[in-house]
What we know:
It is built from 11 helices and 12 strands. With about 350 residues, it is of the alpha/beta class. It has a domain at about 105-175.
Amino acid sequence: MSSNGGPLVELEHLKVYFPIKSGIVLDRHVGDIRAVDDVSLKISRGETVGLVGESGCGKSTVGRTILRLYKPTAGRILFEGRDISQLSENELRPLRRRMQMVFQDPYASLNPRHSVGRIVAEPLRTHGLANRREASGRVRDLLKIVGLPSDAAGRYPHEFSGGQRQRIGLARAIAVNPDFVVADEPVSALDVSIQAQIINLLETLQEEFDLTYLFIAHDLAVVRHISDRIAVMYLGWIVEVSSAAELYENPLHPYTISLLSAVPIPDPIVERQREPILLAGDLPSPANPPAACRFHTRCPFVQPTRCRDEVPPLRKFSSGHEVACHWAEEIKEGRIKPHEREPVLESPRPVPVEAPPPV
């Protein structure tokens, strides 16, 4: 927990909309992409919270908005109890060194024209934490900590493998001794043999530097290994939050149940006996999400009442497990079974786009 007794990072009803424009001359605002729509989440100091979901569900937008790379449309972002959602760039500058990010693509996140030493030392120079000589020594120490040779400082990113480049990104992130790190799918672009090395390195750095992580991923096995708690996201909403062990042993939301049913189990007997739950259709457009429960158009447990009419609140159970589903108890107890047929899909209402005026 933070020094004031509250969470280190807290999101309150966070919304991030991206406008849809039409017209060459008038540039009309005709709609919004609701990338993040009313997300609330708490992250305690020293904790690793995993954020999982399909591509396009808004999880990377959540991470980038926490760091104020995107400006929130509504809601609040609290860092140690201080609302940073409306701070200017000058007001944010002292906080930048306390919040860092590890990007998904190790090939695109490093400047190919700069040496590794310059890349890792750049945060130190930007925040005025070291002169040239001090930065050089600090860079050598950081490269050693992340498992790279000291002579790597004089080389360039193209001379390294994907796993080594991600280690460079980690060294850059921890250079300014941050409190909070957003890891945006840091292993998804790496070979499986390298992923375990990076995950183990992240855990080692967390212990050594007392870091707090928001770990964004779509690989449930990776998230389970590193996370203390896991939040499951679907189409801009958080639909389930639980401890890692509880989520995998007792998933409550139909979306989480479907995701876990597709994860292979290294036991051929158990694997043959279970049946994966297939989701109907594709992910709806965030520009025009379904009414009420956003998952009802694909849900294998969908019911004729409430699902299409009422928005399910994120309810908290006595165990601390949170879920946004009207029928979570009935599904858990087996009183509601997956449908043998695909649920009826609603035809999405198209976003009106006016034709541009003649030039």
